[in-house]
User: Which sequence fits this backbone?
């Protein structure tokens, strides 16, 4: 942190726009706060929004519809394998499996049928002691930005249209394949 403080002037502000572990979980924001360096965002809001389980639980209590999900721990998969797999299978197929905390090294796995569920869970458990399974349903992926200023209208939300061979908004569709996905903006959908 000493090196960062020598680079920053007293009026500089850090924008912690980092993906995955440490970037999305409030760790960097907490470090900046301890070092008394101005930054954008809040520690308290970063951590819960990064953890899938916490974010979905908060949204659910606020009556915001969320995709059904199950949490499977490494311990449950080792001790009660059949029960853990049955619980995740309750979501139906296809099901998406990922660590509850996004990690830049991890990817979402989509299991289209039961035999692929266990390998998908084990892949997620490499990065965390828990793996979150989410049902697919007929959900659409919408990206939107938020603005804290009331003087400007918020940006338009955009629907993600996937063209990638994976068939969903995978890591490759998002970051590797330049033509993997498009963002479709519908002008009539501007929030008030």
Assistant:
């Amino acid at each position: 942190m000493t090196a960062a403080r020598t680079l920053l002037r007293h009026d500089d502000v850090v924008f912690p726009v980092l993906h995955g572990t440490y970037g999305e979980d409030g760790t960097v924001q907490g470090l900046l706060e301890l070092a008394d360096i101005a930054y954008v965002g809040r520690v308290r809001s970063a951590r819960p929004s990064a953890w899938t389980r916490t974010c979905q639980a908060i949204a659910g209590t606020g009556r915001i519809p969320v995709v059904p999900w199950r949490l499977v721990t490494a311990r449950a998969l080792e001790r009660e394998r059949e029960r853990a797999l049955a619980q995740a299978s309750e979501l139906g197929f296809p099901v998406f499996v990922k660590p509850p905390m996004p990690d830049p090294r991890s990817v979402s796995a989509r299991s289209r049928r039961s035999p692929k569920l266990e390998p998908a869970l084990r892949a997620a458990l490499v990065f965390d002691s828990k793996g979150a399974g989410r049902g697919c349903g007929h959900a659409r992926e919408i990206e939107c930005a938020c603005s804290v200023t009331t003087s400007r209208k918020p940006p338009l939300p955009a629907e993600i249209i996937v063209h990638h061979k994976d068939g969903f908004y995978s890591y490759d569709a998002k970051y590797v394949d330049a033509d993997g996905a498009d963002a479709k903006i519908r002008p009539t959908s501007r929030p008030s």
Remarks:
- The chain is about 30% helix and 15% strand.
- Strands lie at 69-73, 95-98, 109-111, 130-135, 142-143, 158-162, 181-185.
